[in-house]
Amino acid sequence: MSLRTIDPKPVSPVYGPVLSWRVGWSLGVDLICETSVCSFNCVYCQLGNIQRHVYERRLWVTTEKVMQNLEKSDWEKSDIITFSGSGEPTLALNIGDAVRAMRERTGKPTLILTNGTTLREAEVRKDIADSDKVFVKIDAASEEMFQRVNRPVDGFSLSNILEWTKLFKKEYSGYLGIQSMFLPANVKEVEALVELLQDVEPDEVQLNTPKRPYPDDWYLPSRGSHGEVPYPARPLKTISQTQADEIEELLRERTGLNIVSVYQGAEAESQK
């Protein structure tokens, strides 16, 4: 399926800044920018159903084009440069080059959001080690739930992701975060998640719930969408703030790790 956009301007691999509850004003960098391409097809993805559900590393958008579009953006207003966008950013062969170029030009810290499937490759681990922050997605504590929620391409397992994340952590001197998306379906795995987090020992654990709607189709604006969206989409079931508070307290007490919650961010924003 071809890329769809409701914006008549030429498609740019640089978008935002958008306000993130985790990192402040974030300038997005989309190294795919073609259609949605990912090795996961998560049931809650803000991009909707992934159009190219593959594990394929190649060059989609040149670093030169990214830097050209950077100059047309409001990057000075951002707190951080985030590599995410239209799928799994580490599938882009130039992820390392783009991170280094962004840091050199802007002086801003960089962040990579990843599902961890490419961490098995030494070249990828080396490239993304240049980023100030890396956030890895871990939504499940069992293989059954991993396959049900994250729907990876064939050949990937939860044990793979955990093994490669721990390997990356040994080689990485930056800030490692674990993103956990909680839905009514996986809340029951919180106790088991404690053991996984204790094993990985990240710098931070981020508790999220799918507040972004699920698009009926692939629309480019979904890569940075927040709140109401100008395209057909449906809301997803979320956990309540009470449930989030209970999960946060349990994980903090049992792991001793730094725990942050999307509900904390929403509460702080509402008090401004």
Summarize the structure.
It is built from eight helices and twelve strands.
- What would you report as the Rg, rounded to the nearest angstrom? 18 Å
Counting helices, strands and paired strands, the structural category is alpha/beta
Apparent shape: globular
Assembly status: single chain
Helix-strand layout with pairing:
Elements lengths: L13 E7 L3 E6 L7 E2 L13 E2 L9 H8 L9 E4 L11 H12 L3 E5 L7 H7 L4 E5 L5 H7 L8 H14 L3 E7 L8 H11 L3 E5 L5 E2 L17 E2 L6 H15 L3 E3 H9 L2
Parallel strand pairs: 2-5, 3-4, 5-6, 6-7, 7-8, 8-9, 9-12
Antiparallel strand pairs: 1-2, 10-11
Helix pairs in contact: 2-3, 6-7
What this model shows, in words?
- By secondary structure, the chain is α/β, with parallel strands linked by helices.
- Helices cover 31% and strands 18% of the residues.
- Strand 8, helix 6 and strand 9 form a beta-alpha-beta unit.
- Helix 2 packs parallel to helix 3 and helix 6 packs across helix 7.
- The protein is globular.
- The chain starts with 13 loop residues before the first strand and ends with a helix.
- The C terminus is likely disordered.
What descriptors fit this protein?
272 residues, two-stranded parallel sheet
